[in-house]
Structure formats: C-alpha cells, structure tokens
Design brief:
Helix content: 40-55%
Structural class: alpha/beta
Shape: elongated
Radius of gyration: 27 Å
Number of helices: 12
Distance between the termini: 44 Å
C-alpha cells in the first residue's frame, strides 16, 4: 500500500509524539515496518513538502469568491434571513441558492448607483454559481436549512466551522471598538399559574419574557418585561422605567416579538445619541431579532449565527 503525502506527514507527526512505536504505526497504516522507518528518515523533506502544499492550498483558496464576491455573499445571506422570517418552511437547497446568487449577481452589476470596483464587477460578471463557490458560502454562512441532515454528523461539522468563522469575523469587526460601546442581550421566560380569581379567564399557564442588556464594560441597561396585558392594573400610574429601570412591553403571547425588540433597540439608540457614541448590539438569530433589524434598517446587514 502506497501512502499519500498527507498520510506520510501524519506518520511523521505521530512518530515525533513518541506515543507510537514503528511497529504500531505500521499496523495502523497497514504498511511494513521498513516503510515507516524510511518515512521517518525523510521527516524534514516531508514536513517541507506538506507545509509548502498547505501554503499553496491556502493561497488558492484566497480567490475572488472570498473577497470580490463578498457583496454577493452578503446580499444572498440577507435574502436568506428575509426568507427565514417571511417563509420559514421554505427549503433553501444548494440549487436554489445557486440560482438566486446568479440572479442577484446580475442585479448588482446592473445597479447604476452601486459604484463597485472594476475587479468586483468582473467577478460578478463571470460568476456562475459553481459548486466551489457554494461550498465556500456554506463554510462562511452555515447550512441552508434548519432541518437535520441525514446522520447528523455533517450538520455538526458545518455548524462548528460556521461558528468559528463567524466568531473570527465578529472579533475583527469589533476590533478597536470601546468596551462601553459593545452591547448584547439575553432573554428568559417566567411561567406562572394564574391566580384563583383569574382562573376562569385564563387558559393554562401565564408567561412573562424578561430581557437583560449589558455592555462589555459591565454596564447594565433597563430590564425589559413583556406580558400579555397591555395595561396591567397593578402598574397603573407607575412609571416603571423611572421607578424600577424596567421597560414594560406587550404581546398577545407574552413572547418577545419584533416590535418589542425594536422598542428596546430604540431605547439603546437614544442612550447612544445622548452620549454621542455608536453602539454595536449583538443578538442571536431569533426571528424577532432579525425582523426587528430589518424594520430598523431594511438595507442593513442582518447577519446571524
């Protein structure tokens, strides 16, 4: 059996770890012990060749798809997020994305106010929606559907790669930003049994959704509480924000919805304006968050994890 260059590098690395004998490596790779010995004698050469091959591979991956087609990737991802909100049951297969990407590429090129660099225009004009581009897009932006892939393994790999890529991009986008200007929020539910007096009118359990916002510097913002009662009697005449630093919101289900998210983001924006700062608010990809971002800035970048 003839080992590939990659397998030879693996042999060299394992031998260098001192955890395996040549006999054990021979059994592992199903070759003779002499073959393993000869490979180890060529350790420096094998390391040089594999390092050179890796460098060439990385250079080859730094193609127009990575940089010149960035605007296309962003537009396609935004369209995906819109579909996630408006048609959550629609299955976006690789073929669907390839066709949509080609359609978007044509539209971007024809946009008179796009002011694109020449190399970006050329990349868009030559774009064919190849499988190579599709693989790269999937690595950068994650899987195409929330449905589990057969076996579950591939989905985990894609998600792992996607999360690491997005974290690096997130760290890069926040480099140089003051900690006091970086905010994030989280939510949890408070489920309760209706009181006896309300039991006749209530169906099942009641619910409040509580949202907390904090900056990377440790500063806390107002708490948000979302209930099912538009004007609770117990809060009548009370300015909850002034008294308790609580902003009360309403939805029919007591869940976070787009409008309640918009309300909190506007409050944060008001604080930023007051301080003459620009806040970066990082939220997860829950539909109300994505929809709120679209409401506030339909032309913006609603990228999600």
């Amino acid at each position: 059996m003839r080992l590939t260059l990659g397998q030879k590098r693996e042999v060299v690395d394992l031998a260098a770890s001192k955890k395996f004998t040549h006999r054990e490596l021979a059994e592992k790779f199903r070759v003779g012990r002499t073959t393993i010995t000869n490979i180890c004698r060529q350790e420096d050469l094998i390391r040089t060749e594999t390092d050179s091959a890796d460098a060439t591979k990385k250079k080859r991956k730094t193609t127009k798809c990575t940089y010149d087609l960035r605007v296309l990737d962003e537009c396609l991802h935004k369209w995906r997020m819109e579909m996630k909100v408006s048609s959550p049951d629609t299955k976006l297969t690789g073929t669907v994305l390839q066709h949509k990407a080609m359609e978007l590429a044509c539209k971007i090129v024809q946009e008179p106010y796009a002011a694109l660099p020449d190399k970006v225009k050329q990349a868009l004009q030559k774009f064919t929606g190849s499988n190579g581009w599709l693989d790269g897009y999937r690595t950068r932006f994650g899987s195409f559907s929330s449905k589990q892939l057969p076996g579950g393994g591939d989905q985990s790999v894609i998600k792992s790669v996607d999360i690491q890529t997005r974290l690096r991009e997130l760290h890069h986008s926040l480099s140089g930003v003051e900690l006091e200007d970086i905010w994030t929020g989280g939510e949890f539910a408070v489920v309760y049994k209706p009181s006896v007096s309300d039991a006749g009118n209530a169906s099942g359990n009641g619910r409040y959704t509580v949202s907390l916002f904090v900056s990377a510097a440790g500063e806390k913002f107002d708490m948000q509480v979302i209930g099912t009662d538009r004007s609770p009697l117990l809060l009548e005449g009370i300015d909850t924000r002034e008294t308790y630093n609580i902003q009360y919101g309403y939805s029919k289900t007591g869940w976070q919805v787009a409008q309640t998210t918009v309300s909190m983001l506007k409050s944060l924006n008001a604080l930023a304006r007051e301080r003459k700062r620009t806040f970066r608010v990082i939220l997860d990809s829950a539909v109300p968050h994505v929809k709120a971002a679209m409401i506030l800035d339909s032309q913006g970048d609603q990228r999600t994890f």
